[in-house]
Design goal:
mainly alpha, 5 helices, 434 Repressor (Amino-terminal Domain), 77 residues
């Protein structure tokens, strides 16, 4: 995958996660606790700096009580 496209995807995914988290009135710390991950991982994800694994998608989806498909329902181009 083209690096520029990958970076754009990660940035837009991060923005989407931030919006979903804020809709639920959760802080990054609260989401991190629900996902059982370090708060830094949530921050890096929201900034588009973390190239996550599928297992990370599962953690975030569980933390937000959503399906993975809902996390990926955003315009990434």
């Amino acid at each position: 995958m083209d690096k520029q496209i990958s970076e754009k995807f990660l940035k837009n995914f991060g923005k989407n996660i931030r919006q979903l988290r804020q809709k639920q009135n959760l802080t990054q710390m609260e989401l991190a606790n629900k996902c059982k991950v370090d708060v830094k991982k949530i921050g890096r994800t929201e900034r588009g700096e973390y190239n996550f694994k599928v297992s990370s998608l599962i953690e975030i989806a569980k933390g937000l009580d959503m399906k993975i498909s809902e996390l990926l329902n955003f315009n990434y181009q």
